[in-house]
Amino acid sequence: MKKMERAIQGKVGIYALANEKHTLLYIGASINPEQRFIRHKYAKPWVVHLHILEFVDDNLAAEKEKEWIKKLLDKGYIIENQEKGWNYISKNIGKPLSNETRQKIRNTLRSLPRKPLTQETKDRIRESLSGRKLSDDHKQKISEGLLRRKNAR
Q1: What is the tens place of the pLDDT at every residue in 22-51?
Q2: pLDDT in the model for residue 81
């Protein structure tokens, strides 16, 4: 385990994302802000900077996230994507999502364009998988999954 991970184990990181001009784009909470940043950056290439604001206990995360949004807005920071519904202070922060909402999110994420893999990444994946033996059962499951995915499109 990394040194930083040991220090924050069991805590939730409240973080801010910014673009290359350091315009504040988003405030979020995650048990692993660095990993969450990578996911944001992959989905939204304009996200460039991660600022970890604080680490808090899990039961305080939703409230602290709201506090940080309010605090930064009160200090005059513009949260650029607020008008798109991101980071508005809501009574629903921290509550479980309905199955309908989860499906809408899933469909939206599937429709987003993905960055093509670089040749270097393709080579690393190929190298890590070379020599790997798959059972007939595993091959069958892969085939069924690919067919389901193809038919879903």
Answers
A1: 777 788 888 888 888 888 887 777 778 888
A2: 54
Paired tokens of 98? 């309905």
Q: How much of the chain is helix, strand and coil, in % rounded to 5?
A: 50, 15, 30
- 124 shares a domain with 106: no
* pTM beyond cutoff 0.90: no
Which among 7, 108, 17, 8 has a CA at the least distance from the CA of 65? Answer: 17
Residue 82 belongs to domain with CATH number: 3.40.1440
Q: Do residues 29 and 46 both lie within one domain?
A: yes
Q: 60 Cβ partners below 8 Å, 6+ apart?
A: 12
Q: What is the DSSP letter of 95?
A: S
Q: How far apart are the first and last CA of the chain?
A: 40
